[in-house]
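How a chain folds remains the central question behind the approach discussed here. For one protein, we set the task of working out the structure tokens from the amino acid sequence alone. The sequence in question and its structure tokens are set out directly beneath this paragraph.

_____
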Amino acid sequence: MQSSSGSHGFDCVIEATGKASALEHATALTKVRGRLVIAGYHQDGPRTIDMQQWNWKGLDVINAHERAPEAYLDGIAEAVRMTVAGELEVQSLLTHVVPLEALSVALDLLSERPDGFLKAVVCP
């Protein structure tokens, strides 16, 4: 975890959980002049961040959330294409399979995110 410049930490750390504790940990793992990418959805309230560390380390903090609907659609289409082509392995992410008739169950899982839930697939 030591870079060639002697700094400890990683060049780029991606926080993808949406949890405050993970954001704190990601800050600690990012090296001086490193990049911290926030990909997790932090939707359960305000966050207190260690701005002193962000400032002292001179971090580049990147918000990875796209807000343009066309970019979402392009990303979804590319993910489907890659999955069908076998270029993207998704099986390990699928923790729940829900029949189309029970779509409301899948939406509840997405909303509640119970322990062990990562992704659900809805099948006909």
